[in-house]
Amino acid sequence: MQNKGIVYLVGAGPGASDLVTVRGRSLIEMCDVLVYDYLVYDELLTWTRPGCEMIYVGKRSGFHSKPQKEIEALLIGHAREGKTVVRLKGGDPFIFGRGGEEAEALQKAGLPFEIVPGVTASLGTAAFMGFPLTHREVSSSVVMVTGHEDPAKPETVIDWGKYAGTGATLCIYMGMTNLKRISRELIGAGMAGDTPVAVVRWATLPRQESCFGTLATIAHHVAQRGIKPPAMIIIGPVVKDFPVYSWYENKPLFGKRVVVTRTRRQAGDLARRLTGLGADVMELPLIRVRRAVDEEVKGEVFSGLGSYDWIVFTSQNGVRYFFDSFREEYQDLRSLGIVRFAAVGPSTAREVEKFHLAVDLVPEKHTGSDLAKALIETGGLDNAKILVVKGNLGGEALIKRLEDQWAMVDRFEVYKTEPTDLSRHPVAGRFREMGAHAITFTSSSTVNSFARQAEFLQLKPGAVTPKSFSIGPVTSQAMADLKMPLTREAGKSTLDGLIEVLVEELRKS
Predict the structure, then answer these.
(1) From CA 266, how far away is CA 292, in angstroms rounded?
(2) Which of 88, 167, 457, 484 has a CA-to-CA distance to 33 between 20 and 30 Å?
(3) Which residue in 32, 37, 92, 309 is the catalytic one?
(4) Nearest alpha-carbon partner for 88 in 8, 159, 154
(5) Do 143 and 198 share a domain, yes or no?
(6) What is the mean pLDDT of residues 25-50?
(7) How far is Cα 144 from Cα 201, in angstroms, rounded to an integer?
(8) In the 3-class helix/strand/coil scheme, how is 495-507 assigned residue by residue?
(9) From CA 151, how far away is CA 148, in angstroms rounded?
C-alpha cells in the first residue's frame, strides 16, 4: 500500500521573504508540490527544489483562480499520491485565510497535516509603519475583522456598531472595496469622524504605499491616491500618535527594484545588504556553478601539494570547491605544506580565512591582471611553482603573465560555470512585467548569460528600464564587447564598492 503524503498549511507572512518562519522556509525547500496564493511574494517560489510542482490558486477581488472546494480536492489528491504538499498562504493560514476549512477537509479525508503559523498582515503593517497596535495610554486591545463582503449587498452583515465604542485598534482585512461603507457605518455607530486611519498597501515590501486620514476623510484620500487592494486598514488613536515617520519608508533604496544576477548561493550577501537598504531585490540567477573536478588532475595536484610556493585563488567558488576536494584526500591542514596563499580580492580572501588560513597577498585592485602584477612584484617567481585554482572560464591571462616570468604554473579547475534557463523563471516574469530601477553585474559570465537570454528578459511596454552597474573593469569590458549600456562601474571591485555607486546613482532619481 502506498504511503500517505502530508500537507503543511504554511503562513507566508505579510510579504517580505525574510519574515517567513525558519520552519516555513525549510518546508518550501523540500516539498514535492507547492500550492500558493496571490499574496505570496515571488521570491519564495525560487526556494523550491528542482522538480517541485508549483500550482497557483490565487484569489483576488474579481478573480478566483480556483474555487475553494477545488483547492481542497487538489491538496487531498496530491497527498493521497504520497507527496509532501505545502499549501502556502499569505499572512497566517488561520487568520482570514480559510486554513480552517482546508484543515477540516484534510482531517475528514484521513490525511495527516500540520499548521505552520505566519506573521499576519496587521502585525507586519504596524511594525513597518512604526506604530504599535496597543499602547497602555491610548489602546489596550486589538480587533481583527474582515471587511470583505459582496459590494452589491444593500447592507453589511457585519455589526460595526459592536466595534465602534470599544476603544480598540481596528485592523480591517480585505476592506478596500467597502472602505466608504465601513467608514459610514462606524461613524453612524458612534465612532468619531476624526478618528485617525492608516491604509497601507503591500506592507513590508519595498513597493509599500501608505495613506493617512480620518474616518470621515480616508475614502476620499485613498481614491485620490489611487491605492488599490490588497491593503490593510488600521483605525485608532495609535495611528495618529506614533507614525511620525515610517522607519522602513525612509531607507535609502526604499521603492527601488534592483536585479541581482549572481548565482543563488552568491546572491545571498548582496541581496541581504540591498534589502537592508530598503530595495526590492529581484534575484535572477543567470549562471549556475557546479563542482567539476578531473580526478586525474586532482590526483596529480594533491600528490605534489607540498611542493607549491603559492596557491592562487581567483574566486570564492574556487576556494570552496578546492577545499571540498582537499578534505576528500586529507584530514589535516598541515598537509598543505609550507605554502603562501594569494586571493584576487577581499571576498575570496575571507573565504580562505574561514579555514583558519592567513592570506599572504591580495592586490589593491581586484582583477586577475592586478593579481598577476602583485605576485610579480614579490620577486623570485623564476622557477617558483604556482597552483592556480580556477573554474572553466577565465584565468588564462593571469597564468600567461606568471609563465612569462618563468614561473611553473599548474591549472586546477574545480568548478564549471554554466548559463541557467530563465524562460519560465518567476522573477524573470516579474522583471518583464515591471522592469527595475537597477541591474547589477558581478562577472563577465553573468553579462554573457544575460545577453544569451535577452529574449526571455525583454521588457514589456511601460516597464521601468534599469540603470546598469558593473563590479569592475573585467565585467565592464564584457558589457562593452556586447554593446550593453553601462551606467556606473564600482570604484572598488567589491560588493561595498558596487553598493556605494548604486545608492549614489539611484538617490539622484
Answers:
(1) 18
(2) 457
(3) 37
(4) 8
(5) yes
(6) 92
(7) 17
(8) HHHHHHHHHHHHC
(9) 9
Rounded-to-integer distance, Cα 426 and Cα 58, Å = 15
One domain for residues 132 and 224: yes
Q: In the chain, pLDDT over 90 holds for what percent of residues?
A: 63
Residues 312, 413 within the same domain: yes
Residue 226 lies in a domain: yes
pLDDT above 60 (res 371):
yes
Give the whole-angstrom CA distance, residue 365 versus residue 285.
26
- Residues paired with 416 in a beta bridge: 290
Q: Which domain holds residue 273?
A: 257-286+420-506
Is 370 assigned a catalytic role? no
Query: Is residue 37 annotated as a catalytic residue, yes or no?
Result: yes
User: Average pLDDT, stretch 57-71?
Assistant: 75
User: What's at 316, amino acid-wise?
Assistant: Q
- Residue tagged 547589477 (cell numbers): 440
All 3 cell numbers of residue 472?
569592475
| Position 291 in a domain | no
pLDDT at 302: 92
456-490 pLDDT per residue, tens: 889 999 999 999 999 989 899 999 999 999 999 99
Which candidate in 92, 129, 174, 256 is catalytic? 174
For residues 97-113, average pLDDT: 95
Q: What is the CATH number of the domain that holds 321?
A: 3.40.50.10090
In a domain, 177, yes or no: yes
If asked whether residues 25 and 58 sit together in one domain, one would say yes
CA atoms within 13 A on the CB side of 404: 10
130 and 114, same structural domain? no
- Given the residues 4, 30, 54, 59, the one annotated as active site: 59
State yes or no: is 42 an active-site residue.
no
